[in-house]
Amino acid sequence: MGIFTKEDTHGSRSSSMTYAWRWKRQNGLQILGVALFVVALVTMILLGLYAKAEKSIVLVIDGKEQTLTTHKGNLQELLNEHSVSLKPQDDVSRALGASIQDGDRIAITTALAVNLNIDGKSEQRYTTGRTVGAALEGWNVKLGQFDKISVPVSSSLQNGAAVNITTAVPVTLSVDGKSQQAFTAEKTVAAALASWNIDFDAHDKISVPLSSDIQEGGKIAINTGIPVKLKVDGEAKTAYTTARTVEAALADWGIALGEEDKVYPGAGTPLTENLDVSIYRINKFTAEQEVVTPYSTIEKEDSTLLKGKKKTVQAGVNGVTVHTVEKVYQDGEFVTKYVVDKKVKTEKQDEIIAVGTKEPVVEKTFAKLEAAPASSTGFEYKKVLTGVSMTAYSSQEPGIGTRTATGTTVTEGRTIAVDPNVIPLGWWVYIEGLGYRKAEDTGGAIKGKKIDVYYDSLQTALNFGRKSGMTVYVIGPNKP
Predict the structure, then answer these.
(1) Per the domain annotation, does 299 fall within a domain?
(2) Is the separation of the CB atoms in 209 and 187 below 8 Å?
(3) How far apart are CA 446 and CA 265, in angstroms?
(4) Would strands 55-61 and 64-70 be described as parallel, antiparallel, or unpaired?
(5) pLDDT digits 0-9 by tens, 349-388
(6) pLDDT, tens digit, for every residue of 175-193?
């Protein structure tokens, strides 16, 4: 093989490094300039892109607008960027994760905390409504017609406000026996009556105390008092009662009736406002009274006696009968009396006179008889009473019976009441302007020269009035 001499195709290492250093030195400034240019170019491009990506967003919170700029891509990032925090109950016009675009308008309504109390049960609720009515609608709370709420539904809400609701309950309300279903949200009977515009006063009666609590399904019965014009025991007044008949009203007032007492109108009469109710206290007393029956004179012919002669064969004895008389007083005043029993004390014995019919055996002579003086009245009488006062009465008056003091039945055109000390009972009289009447009755107010004339009709008796200065002829037991 031949020997070849090594040729230097490359320089030495030091020569290579020197060359590189020399090249960097010659070209480094150019490279640095290019790099700076590239960085600047990229920066400008990025800045352009960044500026181009900036968005302007209108954010409306509870009606207040503000404009925000952002490069964020969705709503949540925007809110976080601007430190806007939300509660779960707040109302946002779009989803938090939704993307946003330049010029978007986003509305947020913050929820208010409200203390809602329904029938004593409280809880905190949130609402984006701004009135009580809107809040209730959002909570699906419906108010009944008679429910009670502490604030008007149209009033505005503030954070931390309280709304109290009381639901109405049904109650059976009865007024004077007429029942109906009523609803109330009040707590007491007194408040419920006020809400129903029912006036209640001291004369009314209610089945439950006014201060008692309202119960669902409870019953309230009211009886209203009515005024009655009451006359009792000499006193006239206006009395109130919730009773609806005279009998029940007397029991309500605690008025007891005696066996003989009378009430007008009758006990079963329905009561109406301002009805006149009169109570008459009737008292009866008995007394014994001797009644003399005059004896009669009977003449019998006796042929053994000379004509013109008379002889008493039997002496006359007046009969005496003891009458048990019941006197009736109304409210302390005498009104009438009745004979309830008769007992004969002395039997009447007529006088018997024998009249002679025997003709005397003598020559008859006749003398002319004088005529008896004629009475201007046309009848004989025992005495004349002048200045007599007269009234009239009727059995139609309360407490006046139909039996007279002499036991007869009162009869118009015949019966009069007299003072027996002035006109004997059983005697006939003649009253100028009226005619014949018989003394059959007496009266507590009939004293002296006073006569009470009987009429069947009460109106006729009232029309008679009082007459004075009358003349009365006292005739005797027999009517002419």
Answers:
(1) yes
(2) no
(3) 30
(4) antiparallel
(5) 999 998 888 876 543 333 332 333 334 557 889 999 999 9
(6) 988 999 999 988 899 898 9
Domain presence at residue 190 = yes
Give residue 252's domain range. Answer: 226-280
User: Before 265, cis peptide (omega within 30)?
Assistant: yes
Q: 402 and 354 share a domain? A: no
Per residue in 304-342, pLDDT (tens digit) is 877 778 888 898 899 999 989 888 888 878 888 878 898
pLDDT on residue 475: 95
pLDDT category, 201, cuts 50, 70, 90? confident
Number of domains in the chain: 6
Domain at 428, CATH number: 2.40.40.10
pLDDT at 3: 32
Whether 346 and 302 map to the same domain: the answer is yes
Whole-angstrom distance, CA of residue 113 vs CA of residue 35: 61
Cα-Cα-Cα-Cα dihedral sign, residues 372, 373, 374, 377 = negative
For residues 58-63, give the mean pLDDT: 92
Tokens of 67: 């404009």
Last residue of a domain, one of 280, 298, 315: 280
CB contact at 8 A, 440 and 393: no
